[in-house]
Amino acid sequence: MLYRTAGQFKTSYKSDMALFPVRQDAVLLMVILGFAWVVFPLTASEFAFQTLLIPILIYALAAQGLNILTGYAGQLSLGTAAFMGVGAYACYKLVTLFPWMNPVVAILLSGFFSAGVGVAFGIPSLRIKGFYLAIATLAAQFFLVWLFEKWGWLYNYNASGAIQVPNLEMFGTYVAGPQASSIVQYYVVLVVVTLMTVLCINLTRGTLGRSWKATRDMDIAAELIGINLMRSKLTAFAVSSYVVGVAGALFVFMWRGAAEPNLFDIPLSFRILFIAIIGGLGSILGNYLGAILIVGLPVVLGTVPQALGLPISSAMVEHLNIMIVGALIVFFLIIEPHGLARLWALIREKLIIWPFPH
Amino acid sequence: MLNDIFIQPFADMFAAPDFLLQVLWEGLVSGILYALIALGFVLIFRSSRIFNFAQGIMVVFAALTLVGLHAMGIPAWISVALTLAVMFVLAVSIERVVLRPLVGQPDIILFMATIGITLFLIGFGEIIFGGENKVMITEELGIPTDSVVLEPWGGLLILEQKDITAVVVAGLLVVALLLFLGKTRMGRAIRALGDDHQAALSVGISLQTIWVLVWFIAGIIALVTGIAWGARAGVSFALEVIAYKALPVLMLGGLESITGAIIGGLMIGMLEKLFEIYWGQPLMGGNTETWFAFVLALIVLLFRPQGLFGERIIERV
Q1: Which of A85-94, A96-105, B308-317 has the highest mean pLDDT?
Q2: pLDDT of amino acid B24
């Protein structure tokens, strides 16, 4: 009823291929953006910023980067966290070497470093395929985390071996470091994430995105119709690692405040892979839905025993959490292997033709 | 610098051959354990094309169940039998609950499902058994704990008897497995399923039975691995990280090959120890074992994309 598309005629190819062929989609997006930009910042508590809003956006961005590689170009990667680490460490070096640099510019620049590393580790993908490639990306994962630990220059030889975010100022307000307020950080994250999302949507709808999808669907066929596989795969690695690197810089600078090398260990990679897969491979919206689920679930589960007055220790809650997340991953894979984004697409179809069944 | 990389390590090796042998032996023992985990992977991959990430946690789970049952006062060998029963129940429930609804889905979905199983088992195991490190019931199982001291070239070489037992048992297990796969009806059915699902189904091979069977065998392998590794380093969830080591072993050996898993495991076990002792610690600040195996496998893959013993990937248009 609300989603009725009757009367919205498309008279040209351009309008048929528009970003929002149905007007209600655009309205819905405006409502969501309104919440993200106005309602949440006005109403959210410190706790909500730190445990839900900021991490959801950052995780969604990281998953989006992975999704470009895995969902659009079909190259399975298990090394996402290491590329996030490259972004974070690059950003740390940038702001400590050039303290005058605008923090947001530093964050956006640091993505290029992880893009470079990503391309270097993407080169084997020209010969190795499928699970073999997935394991090859683990080489990046373990090697880079080892490097973060052993290469003193990266963390300015400080005794703890961890990077500590300094106070960074932009236009007279602190945006990073211990003195920055959550709401400012939220807006910085929101601006960067919005920018990246627009970039990703446009890239995946353009020539480059189509060549990625062709590579994913069948690489030999793609090569036969004249797609340069090397270019397609390496650009996918570059763009993906760029987005992931920016997400990594945000992850440390806007949320964690400090990072040890083992923060970027393999569990983080898997977390992001979960988000991308549960959200839906080959979809931008899915990353957000997946991030809401994977980030939000432990928070919700953590408050349930308290609300019910059950005497459960926090360690127990932690273990239950892992268990329930594992079970839910299996559950969601079974009910919809194509992810939450497909689930939404099905609901939308139903809404459009409602009240008729077909 | 060049001297440190190319000459000094080899000079050290020749100067102390007994130490070199000791290093190789340590590498061989951990290599055997990598190979055992890889074997579990290969078995499941061959019969169902599922990349079973849960093999590592199954090792932990089996070892924890064994130790936990024994701690309840049950005699050691009966605990082993009970643990096998638990692994069977686990295999049946994984097949029923997770795999059956997901038959025919893309590989990556099944792979994710096994990671889901891994998380579930981690949480479940920690709730039941607790997270602290436990001691494997080595002596109760009749595994000798003395060590053999050899003196090659006037040096000193210490071989622990439990390691020797692990090597022998692993060898027997591999022979048994190869015989089972090659000579029995069930084994042939497993290989048939691996070759072509639909053809195997159409000649009357039951997918469900074989999957339960294969996961159960993987469970048995997990128990053996858990006992062998637990005897060396205690039983805890830290064991799970060795599962990652099995992945480069698989790449090196090829995802389909049992011989490949064994040879790859031994190679990686020994080479990473050698590299760590002679190059990693003096030149690179140590702890190179975390990535050496992966980088080695990556380099090998660049020349042989299907691993050393994997099925050649033939692409036709």
Answers
A1: A85-94
A2: 85
Cβ of B248 within 8 Å of Cβ of A76? The answer is: no
| pTM for the whole structure | 0.87
Mutate to test the interface with B, among A135, A216, A293, A323 (most CBs of B within 10 A): A135
Overall number of domains in chain B: 1
End-to-end CA distance of chain A: give it in Å, rounded. Answer: 14
Alpha carbon B300 to its chain centroid, in Å, reads 20
Residue linked to tokens 């340069």: A228
Using a CB–CB cutoff of 8 Å, tell me whether A105 touches chain B. no
CA nearest to A277, candidates A260, A294, A302: A294
Domains of chain A: which residue ranges? 46-353
In a domain, B122, yes or no: yes
Residue of A nearest to B113 (CA): A330
**Token pair for residue B11?**
């000079």
Instruction: Find the domain containing B30 and state its range.
Output: 24-303
Question: Using the beta-carbon criterion (under 8 Å), do A326 and B51 form an inter-chain contact?
Answer: no
Q: Are the beta carbons of B305 and A319 separated by less than 8 Å?
A: no
Query: pLDDT digits over A118-139, tens only?
Result: 998 888 888 887 777 887 788 8
Length of chain B, in residues: 317
CA gap A129, B211 in Å, rounded: 26
Which among B251, B283, B289, B311 is the top mutation candidate for probing chain A, defined by the most A β-carbons within 10 Å of its own β-carbon?
B251
The tens-digit pLDDT sequence of chain B (317 residues) is 777 777 777 777 777 777 788 888 888 888 888 888 888 888 888 887 788 888 888 888 888 888 888 888 888 788 888 989 999 999 999 888 888 888 878 877 888 888 889 888 888 888 888 767 777 776 667 677 777 777 667 667 777 777 888 888 888 888 888 888 888 888 888 888 877 778 888 888 888 888 888 899 989 988 888 888 887 777 777 777 777 778 888 888 877 778 888 888 888 888 888 888 888 777 777 777 778 888 888 888 888 777 777 677 676 66
A146–chain B Cβ distance below 8 A for any pair: yes
CA-to-CA distance for A325 and A320, rounded, in angstroms?
Answer: 8
CATH of A46-353, one of 2.30.42, 1.25.10, 3.30.450, 1.10.3470: 1.10.3470
A123 vs A162: CA distance, rounded Å: 30
The three-state secondary structure class of B134 is: strand
Supply the CATH number for residue B80's domain: 1.10.3470
Q: Buried (b) or exposed (e) across A283-309, using 16+ Cβ within 10 A?
A: bbbbbbbbbbbbbeebeebeeebeeee
Q: What percent of chain A has pLDDT over 70?
A: 99
Nearest to B284 among A124, A130, A150 (CB): A150
Show residues of chain A in contact with B116, CB under 8 Å: 326-330, 333
Q: Do B301 and A127 touch (CB under 8 A)?
A: yes
pLDDT of res. B142: 67
Kindly state whether residue B69 falls inside one of the protein's structural domains: yes
Which residues in chain B have Cβ-Cβ distances shorter than 8 Å to A319?
A: 123, 126-127
Residue B135 domain-assigned (yes or no)? yes
* Chain A with chain B: Cβ pairs closer than 8 A: 134
Q: Is residue B74 part of a domain?
A: yes
Which residues does A294 contact at the CB level (< 8 Å), separation at least 6?
A59, A271, A274, A275, A278, A325
Tell me how long chain A is.
358
Element (H, E) at A170: strand A168-170
